[in-house]
Design goal:
8-stranded mixed beta sheet; 11 helices; Aminopeptidase; Glucose Oxidase, domain 1; 23% strand; alpha/beta
Amino acid sequence: MKQLALIVLLAACEPAAGPGAPAPAWIADTGTFTPGTLPSSSGLADRYRSVAQKIIDYAHADRGAYAKLSTLTDTIGHRLAGSPELDKAIAWAAQTMKDDGLDNVHTEKVMVPHWQRGAEAGAIITPTARALHLIGLGGSVATPKGGITAPLVVVHDWKELEAKGEAVKGAIVLYDVAMPAFTDSDGAGYGKVVPYRFGGASAAAKLGAVGMLIRSVTARSLSTPHTGALGYVDNVPKIPAAAVTVEDAELLDRLAQRGPVSVHLALDEQQLPDVESANVIGELRGSDKPDEIVVIGGHIDSWDVGQGAQDDGAGIVMMMETLHVLKQLHLQPHRTIRAVLFVNEENGVRGAKAYAEAHKDELAKTVMALESDSGGFAPQGFMVGHEDPGAAKRLVDRVAEIATLLGSIRATRVRDSGGGGTDVEPMKPAGVPQVGLWVDTEHYFDYHHTDADTLDKVDPQELADCVAAVAVIAYVAADMQDRLDAK
């Protein structure tokens, strides 16, 4: 393990991920789900009970978020950084927020990576000829023209990779690492296996591999491959990398247990120069404390498969509709509520970093940053985090009290997860309270990063109830006398 200890670092100075290391901050484990302990009432819930129910009743019956999502997914579709579809989505979102009468609608320039997928193919050559169902990982280099054919080495963890030693040299490595099934107590097992997707190529290349395959990061499969980001390490050869379906990974594993296997891999991918893109911002301006801000956000980009409906079209339309609902109800809080549609979460987190830098002088007065990036499923409550442990406890207590107002939509669970999400994370060091919308993710990773991430997987009522949950906590946080983390 010692020789692999530093191999999985994100190129562009991202956090380490790989053998013995956590995934980058923007590849987050959902963690262990436990209900929050509700505090004795401070009177906060009582003060907002009536207005909260008014918001819930309106949002529960509203279908504005679903209508927005339908337009986004059916007329624009998937939205990878650098693509013309993303440009269209940014223009659409800005115009839609203007049409909804929101304040200060504008875009803020962000330079983003521009990776393009090309033709992709794979096949078993021996012991039996058979096509593989695969998809290139985001950021992968291309194979040489005509592809590569090489022996297959199957491993199930980092230790086994190292133990294979010389057998890896000149081979294509398959990481057949199964994602644990969802449970209500532990959530999804994404964080346990995604480091192999992110760091597996460089780990294998360090030992001389010429290509990498990975079992798709999902616990359920109907022969659908799942893409996602990988990272290369400087001074280690960049090798082509793709995900195969769960079914094909298990087939390859069984064949390898019987004897030698060889496979063919051909990827025609391109990494082009960075291009200009943008975050999209719209506000409901505060009545008398407009310079104090509640940020609510999701990411407007998606992978270049499916429609990006759950990941994260649902998240951005929740935020857009939250402001629209509050405006329709003529509810203007003391502080400003700002919706931020972050760009490039999927393969670089450039939008989140750019926002934190551009608005660094406002972060001291940013009283909450909330994110939704787990789909538009039934809301369960909130995950929270804070840079300061004492403030984290106060944050949990106050969010838990606010969550008691959401009993009618069963969104009352709260836990300290250490953060709120990838796009609000860059604001955390400045002491900005972090909140993430907690939804039922039992089926999220069935569709995640695949052609199956389409509008039909989103339930209009569940999405509407997500809007209700976000609108209530955003309004209370923006209107209450003190900050959520105040002593």
